[in-house]
């Protein structure tokens, strides 16, 4: 099976004091042990960067530029990075029209567009409800992987 990691998985992996850290870590370890394919796309890294470098007082990780850069490199060693391609935008546009996506949900639609373009079936996320509308993919909560 193929999986795209939602950005919340990347954040939980790096936030060792977060209640969902162990769930994210165990899930990734289990899937890697099964030789499942785990992917990220540039959008994941951009979203991670935004939160990682935002101050803690405004719900960020408060990492320095150097720390965030190291974390990004570490993430790219854990997950395979699929690059953006010209096919993603038309796929995104098709999805927002089909599902009448508006506002912040447009970011999720872009992840789904990348998944479809790269033939990734499942998205690992703690926010499965955000992806249930998309019949093209399967949202998987990491807490269900054993």
From TrEMBL:
Pfam families: PIN (PF01850). Residues 3-135 form the PIN domain. InterPro entries: PIN-like_dom_sf, PIN_dom. This is PIN domain-containing protein.
